[in-house]
């Protein structure tokens, strides 16, 4: 929740700061006179690095509490991460702007410095973490376009004191808004390709539901943008109505910011079927499903009811746009937009139909061939552990000496068969670069879950230092369990009807049973992929 609030405030700060400085850099004839809130501008410059400090504090506390890293050493380590570097550099740039605001205001250098702040925020964003340079570029373009478009209209809506000539403003702003919208759409597709490759399937998850709601809210934003273009063509328009229209569009944009911020706390659906192993179906989606989801996928099927809802929603949306364009009855238009979006959302939800999951029925001659199927043909797969439990085999392996993966396969006559959606992955930093990398997954559904119990706890990892560890002893709230090391790797799977506490220290034991070191774990993973 703290991260979500911080993200909402950060987006607002970028938008307002960009809006003010972008408008100040323009000649007076191209913009209305603005109220100069000097304290607000300086407050925004103070708040931006503070908000970028939030993820830094979270990482420091994680290192300090979960990995027993000394506090000041944890701070030094985090400064080397993208989030730490983004905070330090943003603090420097914000200080330069704060001290020289009077001199820089009205110059394009101030706009450039805000662009640098946005670049730094994108550098430490989730898109960059998941998709590298591709995600970084997409996130940067997205934030820059939103900040210029929404920031400008919010500033003229809430801080314009006098409209000298609305046409001179709308002429250039319509072009800027058009370019911004095109950039948002393109960068949005870039981010979706990296983070949400299965858009319709993602509706099964909270992240996908929020993304759909965000896209629906974007529709009236586009209509308001078109409306403001036509305002500039009118001979006489009251200043109050113009400002009120901009304010309403900025409030809708704030809702979009809020949805975007809460998405950052949800599990991104890189592969929905995989994610459903450990994450429940979104509560909103459950309201519309008539059957249980396990490994199923969804598709859209439209009957006369859904088509009628869609036509009705489209008609009300068109009616709202007509009211806005013709009569400028803003309250009526906003109400009609809200009703139309509800109908469009219901159309999609009622159209959802459960489908089957295509299971791989091939019997592979070796375990390595079976587990290699999801990866590229040139991927380097190294099998570290194979443990048989009842009629299944637990396999722990590395992919390109980077990710550590635990997977289940089934022994068959003549070979092994893969289970659908049966991979738990530890990613992030390359496994070979870590002294120890251990994670526990709390599983409540899917192929790793033992249906006889409420929860299954899967703990696995690799210990490269210290070298003389023979086994580990994991101390869950419900009991202690020992797992032997093989090729410096171990796995332990246990189920319980109790929801055990996240804290579960792990003792590294020598051959004689002596405790060499204790590894502190104060969190359990809820998804199928973790850093």
Automatic annotation (TrEMBL):
Q: Where are the transmembrane segments?
A: 6-24, 44-67, 79-99, 111-134, 140-160, 172-196, 216-233, 245-263, 293-321, 333-352
Q: Does the keyword Transmembrane apply?
A: yes
Keywords from UniProt, A to Z, are:
Cell membrane, Membrane, Transmembrane, Transmembrane helix
Domain Copper resistance protein D, by residue range, is 169-262
Asked if the Swiss-Prot or TrEMBL record annotates the protein with the keyword Transmembrane, the reply is: yes
State the compartments where it is located: Cell membrane
Output one GO BP term.
copper ion transport
**GO cellular component terms, semicolon-separated:** plasma membrane
Chief location:
membrane
Membrane-topology annotation of the record: Multi-pass membrane protein
- What protein name applies here? Copper resistance protein D domain-containing protein
**Organism from which the protein derives:** Halalkalibacter okhensis
- Biological classification of the source: Bacteria, Bacillati, Bacillota, Bacilli, Bacillales
């Amino acid at each position: 929740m703290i991260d979500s609030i911080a993200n909402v405030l950060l987006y607002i700060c970028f938008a307002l700061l960009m809006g003010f400085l972008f408008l100040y850099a323009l000649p007076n004839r191209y913009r209305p006179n603005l109220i100069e809130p000097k304290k607000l501008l300086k407050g925004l410059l103070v708040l931006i690095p503070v908000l970028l400090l939030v993820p830094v504090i979270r990482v420091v506390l994680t290192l300090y509490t979960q990995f027993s890293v000394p506090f000041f050493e944890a701070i030094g380590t985090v400064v080397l991460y993208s989030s730490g570097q983004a905070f330090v550099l943003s603090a420097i740039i914000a200080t330069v702007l704060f001290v020289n605001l009077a001199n820089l205001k009205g110059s394009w250098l101030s706009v450039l410095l805000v662009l640098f702040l946005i670049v730094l925020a994108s550098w430490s964003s989730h898109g960059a973490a998941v998709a590298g340079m591709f995600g970084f570029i997409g996130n940067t373009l997205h934030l820059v376009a939103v900040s210029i478009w929404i920031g400008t209209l919010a500033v003229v809506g809430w801080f314009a004191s006098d409209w000298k000539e609305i046409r001179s403003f709308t002429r250039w702003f319509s072009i800027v808004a058009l370019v911004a919208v095109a950039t948002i759409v393109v960068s949005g597709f870039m981010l979706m390709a990296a983070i949400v490759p299965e858009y319709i399937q993602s509706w099964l998850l909270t992240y996908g539901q929020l993304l759909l709601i965000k896209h629906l809210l974007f529709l009236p934003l586009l209509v308001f943008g078109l409306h403001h273009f036509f305002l500039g063509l009118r001979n006489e328009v009251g200043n109050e109505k113009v400002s009120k229209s901009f304010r309403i569009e900025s409030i809708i944009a704030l809702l979009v910011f809020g949805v975007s911020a809460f998405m950052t706390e949800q599990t991104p659906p890189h592969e929905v079927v995989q994610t459903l192993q450990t994450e429940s179906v979104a509560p909103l989606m459950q309201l519309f499903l008539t059957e249980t989801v396990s490994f199923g996928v969804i598709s859209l099927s439209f009957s006369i009811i859904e088509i009628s809802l869609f036509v009705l929603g489209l008609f009300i949306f068109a009616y709202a746009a007509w009211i806005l364009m013709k009569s400028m009855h803003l309250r009526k238009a906003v109400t009609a937009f809200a009703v139309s979006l509800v109908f469009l959302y219901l159309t999609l939800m009622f159209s959802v139909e459960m489908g089957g999951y295509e299971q791989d029925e091939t019997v592979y001659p070796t375990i390595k061939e079976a587990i290699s199927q999801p990866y590229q043909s040139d991927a380097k797969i190294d099998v570290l552990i194979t443990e048989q439990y009842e009629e299944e085999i637990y396999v722990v392996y590395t992919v390109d000496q980077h990710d550590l993966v635990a997977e289940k396969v089934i022994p068959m006559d003549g070979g092994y068969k893969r289970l659908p959606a049966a991979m738990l992955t530890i990613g992030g930093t390359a496994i070979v670069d870590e002294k120890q990398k251990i994670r526990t997954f709390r599983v409540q559904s899917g192929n790793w879950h033992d249906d006889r119990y409420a929860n299954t706890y899967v703990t696995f990892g690799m210990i490269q230092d210290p070298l003389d560890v023979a086994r580990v002893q994991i101390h869950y709230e419900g009991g202690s369990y020992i797992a032997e090391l093989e090729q410096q790797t171990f796995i332990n799977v246990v189920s319980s009807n109790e929801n055990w506490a996240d804290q579960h220290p792990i003792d590294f034991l020598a051959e004689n049973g002596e405790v060499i070191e204790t590894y502190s774990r104060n969190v359990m993973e809820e998804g199928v992929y973790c850093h």
